[in-house]
Amino acid sequence: MLVFYLLRRIGVLCTMLFGLLCITFVIANVAPGDPAALAAGPNANPSMIETIRQEYGLDKPLPEQFVTYVSDILRGNLGRSISTSEPVAQQVATALPNSVELVLFAMAFAVVVGISLGVLSAVCRDTVIDHAVRLFSVSGIALPMFWFGLLLQLVFAVGLGWLPVSGRLGLVTTPPEPITHLLIVDALLRGQWSTAWEAFTYLLMPAFVLSFPTLASICRLTRAEMIETLSSDYVLGARAQGLGNYSIRIRHALRNAMLPVLAVIGLYYGWTLGGTALVETVFDWPGLGLLAVNSALMSDFKPVMAVTLIIGFNVMLANFIVDIAYAVLDPRLRRA
Amino acid sequence: MTASGHIEPSSKSLLSIDRLSVNFHTFEGKVSVLDEISLAIASGESVGIVGETGCGKSVLAKSVLGLLPSRTARYAGGGILWKGENLLRAPQRRLRRIRGAEIGMVFQDPMTFLDPLYTAGSYLLEAIVHRDEVNGRTSASHDRRGEAIALLGRLGLADPERIFDSYPGQLSGGMRQRILIAAAIVGRPRLLIADEPTTALDVTVQAQILHMISDLLTGDEMSLMLISHDLGVIASMCQRIVVMYAGTIVESGSKAAVLANPVHPYTRGLINAVPRLGYPQRTIKGIPGQIPNLLKPPQGCRFAARCALADSRCRTEAPTLERRGVSHEVACFHAEHADA
Amino acid sequence: MSEASAIEATATSADASENPRGVWREARRALWLLSRSFSSVVGLVIVAIFLVLAILGPYIVPYPGASTGNVDMSSMLLPPSMEHWFGTDDMGNDIFSRVVIGTRISLQIGLTITLGAAVIGVPLGIFSGYLGGNVRRVIMAFTDLFLALPSLVLAIPIVTVLGPGVTNATIALAIVWWPGYVRLVDSKALSLSKEPFVEAARAMGASTLRIVFRYMLPNCTSPLIVKASLDMGAAILAAAGLGFIGLGAKAPSPEWGAMLSVARGYLPTWWWFAVFPGLAIYVSVLGFNLLGDGLRDIFDPRTTSQ
């Protein structure tokens, strides 16, 4: 049964990926305006536009363009940036690891702290702790990430001087030779402790800001689900058996409460990825989000498309993994 | 002005509930759920508590082990003595040692009372491990899995190995209830509290489960506190019957006394409401009316509003349990008129 | 039903059976229920205040000219004071006035996005859920695809293609938002279509349109109201986000996100420029969220509450 479910989900994933390609293609080509003019950039003159039109095959019929588009992407050709003349694939390759590092930290932090606070709040229901956590989580969801980032910069970087204001690494520090392309990991692997620490201090604020709405949402959801499971019949039965607090709260209540949380983790991951555009802008973090924003401001279309594709693909993959994990963890689904 | 018990806690009593009162604090106000309930269960005795939904019998069962929701329930008086120890004053740690090991409890709906994420086997193992910890044997000095499977077999489950590895959703209602009961008796408790154990099951399965519980009682010398709204179930299993209404005990005594000679109008109503095979055609009479609003409990007898015999004294003064015969008590001012 | 809740039910059943129903009574009851939750009242008050500011803003601010971008270099970048509660910006304009006037813009954007998304999404959802079959499969496949992409990730390329600006940002966000409404309404319509009263109406020959308007739509209103309220907050936030990165409203418009974008260049010395517009975004979103949560608790109370 699990195998069939897996196959079905893979099929859905492939369809969705295809749909993603369609959407990006449609946005690029069916939008009002001349796609060639768009690709040529705002400073192009008519003859340049014509050259671009021929070079990119924009005079060919749409279905043919789509095929070219897909095959290009599959071969790794993402086009060329107008503003920097770099191949987009190159830009993406440089920016991707930075975003990965940021998002990984943010999600890990959000999940660990969010669940812990949610459990704490549910177990200490109606106490001061509970009210404080609820206040925190409600306001956290409403907090604009970009504003929060600015405030933190004001307080911690400028005011207290504890953390660097922006950027990925100090200007005079040499980054380690890449292995995983994740700065902190590479620095640790190469034994460059001070570089690793410095990279960490740069990561701290942006990752915290990025994690915040997700943290607050997870906290809130965990609390609600824990309260529900703590008042369930099987918990009452466990108490009647004389089981201790750890067994009841963690083995039974939390494990059941985690399933609905797992179900939305994919969604939260998507939010976080979307939020990189805002956070990376505030902190000058050289990741995919900043690439997309800078390119968008210059109407440089190809990098924006590439980032959309990558992030879209990533989110779909994440949702796929979550679905599979959910099926594995919940025995009730395996018989469906 | 309240019903007090004439049942003295004797040295033979395993469990003795003495004038227990419980209130629930809700948004609308304070609900008087149990009003000076007194009850005693001796070693090896099986007592049935019968009454309609809302009479407080489940609350009574849960309060023995301290399982009432702490946010709303308040103990307003009385005590619960287990082997002489007052459970209402016992710390949580002590209660946890008693639960499962000295007093076992089985609930109504095995589907919702089993964690759907764990196999039946792990459920049983949890109970076994708890018992071992209470007894001071923390290391796995014996084959716990084997013991669990043997226990499942003993309770009438065919293919216990497969059931050990099954999830609750894969098992039938009868199987699940057997698992719950198995876990409850793992610690060889002196008392088994069963709260509507067969209500959620089919009639045929019901009989099997009751039969199984009977065997366990004789085999292990266990006492039983059986709660049900079904008089038939109580009659088939218990030596003594306690009839509850709206948080009070209205009649109690040996099964023979209560069933053959019901005195309280409510008990008579209950018995009349049970359809019986083999008797001449008779309309089944229900008991008209509803249980009173326990936010503002009536001053007098709580059954007065639905009672054909109620007079002004019934409405202002609450009757207390009075002895009516050998092992038979009734709380009613019209007890004498009941002999028909 | 547990013993405890059975007891509670009988305790209150006497009262419930005596009250007649009526739409007006329902609304008052809803308001009363809302008032029992402190956070919901706070949300309602905040939203009401912002609504008033949006409508009356330009007429009640101390410096009405601040919105059109007068340049008054002599008052440039003054800290908060009695004359300028939030200080002045880089053009010498009173920030408080600009924030208040910006309320109208932000709320307008939020409303347009939410309404636009609903107008597209709700009919699609109802038809999808009611008609079922292949129609539903196609619509839901399309919807799921859009829903799989985070809002900003999809909005940024659309705005890039259309060109930066408030209108385009609003259009982009509405395009991103409508699938949520389809999903919500579809599931409701699907379960409703199986209800006996709908089958009865069908059997009596009611046209699809009539069934949709008479039976489906009214039953969807409460989840829609909740979603719309929560979406207002999210839409305002997203629009401000686009404004911040420069793809939405542009200076000298007093839109909060755009103001923040300019203010960023004046940190840390002239901090008030960035603090107050951001605070406005925060509080308004908070208000809509609290209100939405309160409404959700009324319309869909969980049985294990209290």
Cross-sheet strand order for the largest sheet of chain B: 6-7-8-3-9-10-12-11
CA distance, first residue to last residue of chain B: 28 Å
Number of strands of chain B: 12
Poorly predicted sequence stretches spanning 5 or more consecutive residues of chain B: 1-9
How many domain units of chain C?
1
Strand content of chain C: under 5%
- Largest sheet: number of strands, sense, barrel closure of chain C: none
Order of SSEs of chain B: EEEHEEHEHHHHHEHEHEEHHHEE
Q: Report the principal-axis shape of chain B.
A: globular
Number of helices of chain B: 12
- Rg of chain C, nearest Å: 23 Å
Measured distance between first and last alpha carbons of chain C: 16 Å
Regarding quaternary structure, what we see is heterotrimer
Q: How much helical structure, as a percent, in the residues of chain B?
A: 25-40%
Q: What value does the average pLDDT of chain C take?
A: 80
Can you put this structure into words, describing what you see?
The complex is a heterotrimer of chains A (336), B (340) and C (306). By secondary structure, chain A is mainly α. Chain A folds into two domains: 34-77, no CATH class; 95-335, MetI-like (MetI-like fold, Orthogonal Bundle). Chain A has 14 helices and no strands. The mean pLDDT of chain A is 85. Chain B is of the alpha/beta class and 340 residues long. The radius of gyration of chain B is 21 Å and the shape is globular. Residues 1-9 of chain B have low confidence and may be disordered. With 306 residues, chain C is mainly alpha-helical. Chain C has a single domain, classed as MetI-like fold, CATH 1.10.3720.10. Chain C has helices at residues 3-16, 23-35, 38-60, 95-131, 133-148, 151-162, 166-193, 196-203, 208-245, 256-263, 272-299. In chain C, helix 4 (95-131) runs antiparallel to helix 5, helix 4 packs parallel to helix 7 (166-193) and helix 4 (95-131) packs antiparallel against helix 9. The interface between A and C is large, with 55 and 49 residues.
